[in-house]
Design a protein that fits this description.
This protein has about 475 residues and is mainly beta. It has two domains: about 70-105 and about 375-465, Jelly Rolls, CATH 2.60.120; about 135-340, Neuraminidase (6 Propeller), CATH 2.120.10. The chain has helices at about 20-60, 65, 275, 325-330; strands spanning about 80-90, 105, 110-115, 115-125, 145, 150-155, 160, 165, 175-185, 190-195, 200-210, 215, 235-240, 245-250, 255-260, 265, 280-285, 295-300, 305-310, 320-325, 335-345, 350-355, 360-370, 375-380, 390-400, 405-410, 420, 425, 435-440, 450-465. About 30% of the residues are buried.
Amino acid sequence: MPVKKGSKRKTVWWNRRVPIKYLFPFIGIIFLLSAFSIYNLYLVISLRQDISEEVQIVRAVDISEVNSEPLIPLNNAEDAGGRMSSFGDNFSGLGYINEQETDLFWDENITAFTFPPVYELTKKNDCSEAFCGISLDATDQDSICLPMGCLSKTENNRILFNSKELILPPALSKEIISDITLASFGADWLIGLVTGPTEAERGWIYRFDGLAYTPLITDASEHQILPRFERGGGKIAFGGDASDYIALYAGYDGKAFRFRNGAIEDISNFFGLRVTDRGFRAQILKAGAGREAVYYICSVSEGKPKFIKIWSQDEANSGGALDFSPFLFKGDFQPEQMLCAISDVNEKRLAIVSRRGGAYEMHEFIDKGFDNSRARQVTSVNVNLQKNETVKSAVFADLGLLQAGNYESYLSNGGEFEAIRPYLWHTFEKEGSELYYRLFLEPQADASYSPWLDHVNRLDYILKD
């Protein structure tokens, strides 16, 4: 097509000549980028060299010198030239315990070892009044009034606030409520509910301030009250104060939680089947505060007298539990029903009112802690289940020891006991075809101290090929 006179062709940008004034800045930018890339490459090479040198140093270290024990991967027994075996015991019996060489106290209900408890139990007097004038109804209140109003429960398991029915949280809208417990610590109420049929029972705990609910334990919380074995029939009980309290579901199975400092501690392992005994109505009392806090749990159920102690390890953890029931209720003191009250918090004195037949009597219980007069130990029998096979090395891989204090661990494959460090493998000095363990626990000056050992779930050991 002919171009009109006077018109100019358009030149596309890539065909334009770059002015000389832009050339040197462009070359400078290219140079800087290249220099930066070379510097980064140098850093990467140096870093790889440093890492390689550190890895070589780690590989060159004799690990047995660092830990004083040979470390063997738990799941790779072949590296140790042998075969892995394992032993476990939750102390439900004494079949694997050398009773002649064990002087720790065995709690047959909670199935744990402690220092021997020290206490006094004295009969004070007979009573003409029912439960010596102490109210049994106070252990399960129908109504609690605070400055914000009155919260109450009805016989058909409804909750009323200032005489008007209280709408429950949405999560409970389709639940059938079988039991309600009310409590109050400070300015708020605590509500414990049990729902569902006995074969699918569930527990719920809410805080109520007169305006709104705060969920503590529900079907969506981290901690749950969901009994095992598809057997229910439990009630929820509360005890303590606003800064530290326990919620206990005691049915066929037990679930218990300790609330303090804004945290929830699961202490359900204190309430196994032997302790709950198919369910009981609990009364929870507290003495002391902080790490000195001690809880006493009494059963007020007819035909099921119980007396359980929970002590503290520190400000955040419980130290253990002890069920006094098997050795407290014997001889002339075998109540059909009981009720407790703290008479002296500092001295840890409790009044235990008992009913037997139509007669009521009052006993005084003084908690003096534990026998810390000397060191004590627990020693096993031979736990090598592979008879006549040589045990080369072993390790405590799961040891349930609370509030351990100063203690020493020992293992033996048939010869002398050899000192070991828990959770690190120990190779025996000589060959032997047996396996024994021993824990040696030191006392403390504080009489309230006791270690609490409830299992040796995994004592792993290597057998020689």
